[in-house]
Amino acid sequence: KREGVSKTPDFMYKARTNCLGCHVELKTTDKGQQILQASARTCVRCHTKDHQKMLKDWKIELDKEIKYAQEVEQKVLAKIKTKFSGPTPVEVMQKVQEGRESMNIVLYGNGVHNKKYSMMLLDVAITSFEDLIDFLEKDQQKQ
User: Fold this and answer.
1) Is 27:35 a contact under the CB 8 Å cutoff?
2) Alpha-carbon gap, residue 117 to 142, rounded angstroms
3) What is the pTM of this model?
4) What is the crossing angle of helices 115-142 and 54-83, to 10°?
5) Which SS3 state, helix, strand or coil, does residue 24 take?
């Protein structure tokens, strides 16, 4: 659970399904390691064939939102760079780090494992970056 984000267990967790409920296809990685991987076919095993495209749709939606969060992060970093010629205040960098941490949970945790919570985390990251941009712009207008 991340501060500022409601606890949102995934539907599969609520249905008492663990990793092996979805990760059932044996795959060999480039390094020769065998892993169990989930795929769209896995969804169809328990649901309808309409669920075949669900995983792909989720990945597309999450990728789009991650890309947007990264763009907003770059905007805030550019604002910081133009605002401060010397060291950036600790409070500003803490706010950037908070946004990054929320975004990184989705990036490195594979957001499809809990799409709803992942979207909420990305929203928190984007809001954090946007709030910081607003703060920096308002502070700039005062000078």
Assistant:
1) yes
2) 38
3) 0.83
4) 20
5) coil
